[in-house]
Amino acid sequence: MMAASYFQDARLPQQRAVEGVAFPAVLVPSGPASAGGVDEFLAAVRAERASRLEPLLRDAGALLLRGFPARTAADFDRAVDAFGYDELPYVGGAAPRTNVVGRVFTANESPPDQKIPFHHEMAQVPTFPSKLFFFCEVEPKSGGETPIVLSHYVYKRMQEKFPEFVAKLEKDGLIYTRVLGEGDDPSSPIGRGWQSTFLTKDKAVAEERAAKLGMKLEWTGDGGVKTIMGPIPAVKWDEGRGRKIWFNSMVAAYTGWKDARNDPVKAVTFGDGSPLPGDVVAACGEVLEQECVAVPWRRGDILLIDNWAVLHSRRSFEPPRRILASLCK
């Protein structure tokens, strides 16, 4: 006789069915979660990861665990560990972040009134996480959802609406250009300085690490640097699921990479250097919004995203709100 599962499927009003699959998948405790505490939850993750949790993640692309006894950053760190994925160091990403404990960081620390547009995590560099975890330590007073959308579905919609644009994108890829200061600028959603981007204060080491990412650096004379990445593919092939995915930060860069140093229209171009058509970028932003699911955060929520399948964003919010993140290879 099979042992009863610790997890039980649940439905949310925000969920949607995409090609017959509930998105995101949602699990809640099958009994009173508090009974065995965090240790029992972690043991259940280890026991049912391969049989239950990973197949759900594979089918749906995103999995929300709600109502479990993880409450602190340390609990979350142990939960990520229980899944058994290798950690991916945050090198080359744009968001200002702070290490909290173990392999756990704050999510993007940009101001609460700013939206963060849809993107695949670190799509603008060749080494990106395959999985990412988010955890709600303090739920938002209002707003602050993390909308998610299925990448292959966005590709399909864009292909139907703008076949010529998509053909050029597949042929040429994208070039991303970003100007970084020396230190972090917490007022900007892309305010990570070059020292924390490359985890060094030494320009020569930064150049070496940038070169490993395939990134060119041009020092600006005021202690800052212009980073040029690409051409890099904007559409990828998801080997595991056998489908094309809209794997890029085009809308995020074109609409959101804006601060004292950066003009978003110059932040991303076709791989041949020609400018992107603003109307098509705007239409892609609309597709992303139309097809997304924005689940309101509750304290203790753990959201596991397959970065090969799903783009994510952040809505503006009224503080307090504290969402933590962890990136996995």
Automatic annotation (TrEMBL):
Keyword Hydrolase: no
Pfam families tied to this protein: TauD
Record-level Gene Ontology MF annotations: oxidoreductase activity
Entry keyword Ribosomal protein: no
Gene3D superfamilies documented for this protein: Clavaminate synthase-like (3.60.130.10)
InterPro entries for the chain: AlphaKG_dependent_hydroxylases (IPR050411), TauD-like_sf (IPR042098), TauD/TfdA-like (IPR003819)
Protein name, UniProt field: TauD/TfdA-like domain-containing protein
Transmembrane segments annotated in the record for this chain: none
PANTHER family: GAMMA-BUTYROBETAINE HYDROXYLASE-RELATED, TAUD_TFDA-LIKE DOMAIN-CONTAINING PROTEIN
Domain TauD/TfdA-like, first and last residues per copy: 46-324
Domain of life the protein comes from: Eukaryota
Keyword vocabulary terms for this entry: Oxidoreductase
